[in-house]
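Moderator note: this is an archived Q&A kept for reference. The question asked for a predicted structure of one protein chain; the sequence and the answer are reproduced below.
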Amino acid sequence: MTSTFTLSLSTADLSRLRWAVSPAWELLASIRALARPARRAIHLPWLSEHRHDPLLAGPGTSAAYDLTAGPATHLPGFLAPTPLSPLTALDDELEEVRRTPAEVVRRDLSAVFGDDLPAGLAPMLQAPRREMETVVTDLRGYWQRTLAAHWPKMRSLLESDIHFRARSLTERGPAAMFAGIHPDLTFDETTATLRIASRQAALHDPHRSLEGRGLVLVPSAFAWPTLYFKTSEPWVPVIRYPVRGIGSLWEAPADTADLAPALGATRALLLGLLETPAGTLELAHRTGLAPGGVSAHLAKLARAGLVAPHRTGRIVLYARTARGEALYR
């Protein structure tokens, strides 16, 4: 069953529209993908590798599993606080989760589970702060086992999406930008109303006004193919949507051997890594090269017309140009 959720955005809300990356959300959504893989075929290479992770042992084995994989419709709000920076770090997000006030934990557990709270979560009602320490420790361990090695490429894909959407907003306006994000999103500029087609069976309050609280848009790899939104207090309203180019996430890196004689091995490697836009520090981390050396090689590739820099806030991302892409066809 599909219902429609509407958000009224004021001029202030539109002026405060921003994007962010959330590693904690990817962590949570990836657990749900492993627990319910049927609609996540696009992640099959990763799912196959991690389907036996210890966190996936099943209900009652850990509070982290019961909180993230258990709810059929939505997560407790405290698990996924709205990120407020495009450069949000996992440790910062998990620390915010760990510090969730006890009354917020109890309220969200009631909202999600009602009278069907899993037995494994009962201690969380009695001692939320103590139990949250264990949950965060388990989630951090899961991240290291399953996502840490893939995060550089994922983050590059997410940052590329942010750059594209921000440019779309500037060049085409909010209606076109929202329409391009997901088929379930439409924006009526006349009434400044954002309509979201929700797959949830029922919405208690389907019409809300943001009242100047702003809106954060979060591209996500593991949200695919669904749209997620949260407008409840005390968090800044957030919409999480499938990132562009998700099909390339688990592809093997392009073979740059044939380009090495012409470009040099290092520049061929960097050009190959720019299948999705990336910054100098990101490329340095992925290659083990010094940032200064990466910058010098990128400058030469840019002079050859193979890559071009694009600024997103304080971040400069490099992307292949049409000429650079032509080398891989």
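Archived answer notes: The chain has a mean pLDDT of 86.
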